[in-house]
Batch of 4 targets.
Target 1
Amino acid sequence: MPTGLNRRKTDSTIVMRTGVRRQTRRLVFSITAIVVIITLGVLIWSLRPIFLPIIIGMLAAYICAPLLKLFMRMKVPRAAGILLLFGVFVLTGIIIANQIGSIIPGERDRLVLQTRFQYKLNEKYRSLMGLDTPEGSGNIVYRYFGPDFDRFMRSINSFLSLSDEESALFIKYREGYRGQPLIEDAYYRYFLKNRDADISRAMDRGAEKERRPLAPEEAPGDSPFTVVMNAFQLWIIMPFVFLFLLIDDGEIRRFFVGLVPNRYFEVSLAVVDKVNKAIGNYLRGILLQCSLVGITYCVLLVLIGFELKMAILIGISAGLANAIPLLGPAIALGIGASYALIAENVNSILPFITPENLTVAIAVCVLLVMALDNGFYQPVVLGSAVKLHPLAVFIGIMGGSMLFGFAGLILAIPTIVVIKEMVYTLFRELKEYYII
């Protein structure tokens, strides 16, 4: 009897110690997970400036991974395939940077564009409101809403009007400053009329604060060389992330899967594989879709008479932004309408398109691209890729932009795709393995 009692006491002690160890292990795992999550959150928040280059490098490596496997099936050595992809990646980045640099206007062109836009905007406003007639009393819309429209136009002109320093630079460029081409007489007349109108508006309001003179305490901006060097230091990390992830060959994934307890090992592998496939389909599909949208914009805008540089700029901007619902068409319409406002002449192969109806032609192009995107590009290219509810997209974009700025705006949708597919696959596999 004492022996049986001692054995039961021993068994109960072992069970108790096992339970204590299990609870201790769970507590340690929980505390460790919390510390890791907090640490990762702090690091991500602190490293926001390099967040976008790292993610773009990761996405590029993710997209190019099937190409590397294709090279290996074609008996190309892995090292040679990696070097080839890395060379193409760097060369593509250099070409894109050069093209963007050539499209973005310099100081002289920016002053001219700003002057032209302000003059044409005010001219169009006077025409729409009926203020360009000999009477100058305005139409019926202006009689009812004229004061409100005038206040709105004054705020726009306050933003567009050249400051004293910019006006002095404009006059210098007019005379061939820094070896630049002379500013045309027509644009100089725009400049003089804008300046007279600015002075008139300031006198009507009884204050010179409507103008935007450079404040004495305002520090000069960074030089172009400084801006370029800062951008270079920030984005130089992107090609190295791309290279290291191609060299990785699954070691990172094996490391994290190895941390999973044996009970959940098969579930973890299934989740990783299915999430990997879903993300790959989405990224490759959205890349092809955005490329097709951008090319379509370029072709249509050239057909209606846009300059090639401007068509490429709008195509690249709207194509990239097309990953965010409705942003691509909005950018194409906004930039296109702004260009139509300052267009002096139109060299379109379609004879019925003139500077007067160029804005209508731009709206038609945007509608055509949207129809092609919704009716052909998305169903065919994206296919069975992950579908997202519009409300989730809207909330994700707003939250991402508020937390991480431009990087959060761009990466919000891919992040939602990853989280959605990971949660869905995880719970499905847990049910299939009767874990929950």
Note: The longest helix spans residues 2-46.
Target 2
Amino acid sequence: MFIQHMMGILHHPKEEWSQIRKEHYSISHIFIQQVSILAAIPAVAMFIGTTQVGWSIAGSEYVKLGVASALPAAIAFYFAMWVAVGFITYAIHWMEKNYGGNAALEDCLSLATYTATPMFLSGLAALYPLLWFNVSIGLIAVCYSVYLLYVGVPVIMKIPEERAFLFSTSILTVGLCTLVGVLVASVVLWSTVIPLNYIAA
């Protein structure tokens, strides 16, 4: 069912959000069978891309990462995705009362997870870690995730369109701040706790 919803949310989001709203999965189910799979996509792709292909800014002078440093970095990034989704879910649940929402925590988690699906899938681009390519794919994914958010909030949270717009904007702000926080934390982590070992390709 998860794969069906994932494909549906990419092809016909308005109809798929309604189907998702009718189903109620536990938090553990969503994390174990959905978030765990989605979070692994960018983590595994980055590990393979950085160790086998190598980073490049303009398509030349590739620099690889040693497996010994790339593996813990990928694992840390994987669990950071869990924390990010959990934090955004909590923020949605905490803010919803201000906008007339009354959704269960599980619904808030579904909203956060499916909204972030395009960004998780865009992690496949890291298999070929060329800077401009990854940034372009990432921006497209972010734009579509924003669209999914604005379409999904009134359906999942069951609130009027005008309030849903304001609520979606608040969630977007939290999401972007969380994304920046994860990136900053990654840079700090990789420069101190898990220093990266670069190898000339």
Note: The chain has one domain: 24-200.
Target 3
Amino acid sequence: MSKRFDLGGKVALITGASAGLGVHFARTLAQAGAAVVIGARRIDRLASLQAELEAAGAKAARVALDVTSAESIATAFGAAEVALGPIDIVINNAGISIVKPALEMPIEDWDSVVDTNLRGAWLMAQTAGKRWRTAKRAGVIVNIASILGLRTIGQVAPYNASKAGLIHLTRALAMEWARHDIRVNAICPGYIETEMNSDFWKTPAGQRLIDRIPQRRIGRPEHLDGALLLLASEAGSFMTGSVLTVDGGHTVSSL
């Protein structure tokens, strides 16, 4: 059964791989046997992760990648293919958020969040999809959405909107591209502890948020591994257009 989750011989490209969940996803896919291309705007910030992956026996490459730029994406795909071969799996992980009341949100802040979280994922998916269709290759896209695409909180209107849009985009692309043997699915993480937010969860405000989660605990990056490997591997080969929620029951809570 474990062979169904094996990614040996596959090449995966992860966006937003310089920090947080992107780093964890790169490690998880490499441990499952994939060759890993890590992408971010600052390629120098990827050097230590590439070295770590290679030291563990994985094939790894790093590419400069700005998901808001179609030109950057095309260049990154070309560089990735030269380094490790054709891409089989795309993990659309790059994302940002700006915290401000909606009435005070400048247009440029709205554009920045939506351009990265939604337009960037669309550009990545379309670039991959065109390459796979031309080459008559199967492909897999996993979009990293959020439970805030399913339920909202205040002060992050563009983030809420972009993640809701990403969920619907996932379903639309899955419907259109199934005929090309391209699977498109999404993961909606709940609150996940990372290096960047770990201090917050120790504060009274952080604890109040944890108390709203039915399991009464914060998620860890490894809690996303099962969903990620399922959607990326042969084990999920009959899944497309699926949206997997990994949130400790948060979205089914009435709190």
Note: The longest helix spans residues 107-135.
Target 4
Amino acid sequence: MSGILLRTLRGENLPARPVWLMRQAGRYLPEYRALREQKGGFLALVYDTDAAAEITLQPIRRFGFDGAILFSDILIVPHAMGQDLEFLAGEGPHLSPALVDTALGVLHAVPERLAPIYQTVAKVRAMLGSERTLLGFAGSPWTVATYMVAGQGSRDQHDTRAMAYRDPAAFQGIIDAITQITVTYLAGQIAAGAEAVQLFDSWAGSLAPSEFERWVIAPNAAIVAALKARFPDVPVIGFPKGAGEKLPSYARETGVDAVGLDETIDPLWAAKALPPQMPVQGNLDPLLLLAGGEQLDTQVRTILDAFAERPHVFNLGHGIGQHTPIAHVERLLTLVRAWQA
């Protein structure tokens, strides 16, 4: 018997709303902080399959979420493509050589870097009950490319957007290469036990409409089509953060089974604008979960009511903040589980 998260992603509008939170396995949990202090840096945790499996399961044990999302990082893909990757304290991820200065062909792929991730998925699946869904994930090609080109994160993706305009053929080569390995990577996660997967496009909102079509919709559609050819029953969630009014086109044209909404999307607008009966996921502001109080209660109910007529997975509009009180997460779960249409 499938859990309510998987059933919802497959299109059932159930009276109970499944809930999981982006970055639910992370620094707001004392058990995560203790394990990280014991084990070392972030990347070491990702590649330590026992530790990564334990971290994936920590929020399930504490809160009983309906889905467990793999503990990993979107930059495992460029690492497997041959870029060096390190996470520096206070600075975030650094990739080298940056493709703004170096041709893609210089990189030498290291596909064995994906193997520990598959092992983590298999370990979690073996320990996770059948009533809960295991979610795999990858970064979407545009977002992954922004890090590969600049060598690090940026506020406006200036280097990558400029390269896409200046040399679209070269940039297309980068996108195509990421797309190809992402299909392999997600297929490997599914084969290891992931029952649904999410494509994170954290920087989709930085693109003009025509560029959004080329660098977000087209590669995501290619990934979804390739996965569906091999795993037709495995739902794919698309999360194009910042897409705004481009969200309906994304939902229609990529072929995703469900679409994630960030906190800037009006849930009443989304309920009307998105394809009828398409499952949606989201979209509480993570800062509201941090703040708590009556506004949290009100907005949770507003989101739930807005999507009462379609399948809905309750989630945040982006990742949970590291200073979020445990009590606020518990309150959120109480509200979601008590809701009735």
Note: The chain is about 50% helix and 15% strand.
